[in-house]
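Practice record 12: protein with zinc ion.
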Amino acid sequence: MAEPANVESNAAADCVFCRIGARQLEAMVVYEDPEIIAFRDINPQAPAHVLISPKRHYATLYEFQQQDPALLGRLLAAALQIGQQERLAARGFRLVLNHGVEGGQTVQHVHLHLLGGRPFNWPPG
Ligand code: 5GP
Ligand code: ZN
């Protein structure tokens, strides 16, 4: 089947986060700019649980770093802005980037988790 015209050329047709970024799949979007989309996790692990993702498809952090290293910084900047939007900057929040099997990455499209609204333990599980 041909790819829909409004999906970026590097999008994986069956990638759920590409589909959310292209607005083909519904999500509770809390932030968007031309390169980044952030939306609430479907299975939240805290009162606030937002996923911040590049719209372009990068399966891993290494692929992302190789192809658009500057966007890594802008992804973090977006997360900080969302922390303020969610009124979590003063009380604190956690940012998580799961990479690979042992890192617990289950969606093969790079995304940063912002978790807040409750205390978190260290070390993580
Ligand atoms: P990972 O384990 O890869 O770091 O995180 C993937 C996250 O994506 C999980 O927390 C999971 O709940 C979330 N997720 C998976 N599919 C969807 C979806 O279709 N919509 C939304 N909003 N979140 C999703
Ligand atoms: Zn993707």
